[in-house]
Amino acid sequence: MEANWLTYLSLLFALFAGIASFLSFEKRYFLLFASLCIFVNGLLDALDGKIARMKGKASKKGDFVDHAIDRFSDALIIGGIALSPWVDKLIAIPAIATVLLVSYLGTQAQAVGYKRVYAGALGRADRIAILFFACILQFFFDKFFCFYLLEWVMIYFIVAGVITIVQRYFAVMKWFGNDKR
């Protein structure tokens, strides 16, 4: 199987996860399906690059496709949760924006000649793991201190995301130093 097919397949699982999350407030068992889809999305995302490298087919085009599909996947998964009644929209919108900005800074560093920056408290693998477990736990539990667990996750994404953005920003600025590149 070609690595890009795994990448595109991961997008399909992100779509399923987003839809299931959106529908899960009325039918909680959809949270378990969403969790499974999030897990498969993360697994396929981890495998696509490894397979490309093992086959000697890793390329800039493949890297671009992978990162673009990852952003669509993030938007679909978090968007489905954001549009559900589990999360207040005033929390959901900054969470989505922060997650996308975290990834943007990582790839923008590479675009200006620095390495791809993965550092920080809120990388993609972290988000996938957190969402996987959060959907399972939300299935069993209701509110924690006035918020649903998925709302707490979005709040964490905002806080950890801002910290990660600052970390990545200063890592790249340190690389620039006094250079005007």
Overview in brief:
By secondary structure, this protein is mostly helical.
Notes on the protein architecture:
The protein has 181 residues and is mostly helical. Helices cover 77% and strands 2% of the residues. It is built from six helices and two strands. It has helices at 3-23, 29-54, 60-83, 89-111, 124-140, 149-176; strands at 143-144, 147-148. It has a two-stranded antiparallel sheet. A hairpin with a 2-residue loop joins strand 1 and strand 2 (147-148). 37% of the residues are buried. The model has no long low-confidence stretch (mean pLDDT 91).
Layout of helices and strands:
Layout (H helix, E strand, L loop, with lengths): L2 H21 L5 H26 L5 H24 L5 H23 L12 H17 L2 E2 L2 E2 H28 L5
Antiparallel strand pairs: 1-2
What is the helix tally? 6
Q: If you compute it from the alpha carbons, what radius of gyration comes out, rounded to the nearest whole angstrom?
A: 17 Å
Give the beta-strand count. Answer: 2
Measured as a percent range, the helix fraction is: over 70%
Total separate domains: 1
* Share of β-strand residues: under 5%
CATH architecture: Up-down Bundle
| Overall average pLDDT | 91
Q: Report the principal-axis shape.
A: flat
Biggest pleated-sheet summary: 2 strands, antiparallel
* CATH fold description: Four Helix Bundle (Hemerythrin (Met), subunit A)
CATH superfamily: CDP-alcohol phosphotransferase transmembrane (TM) domain
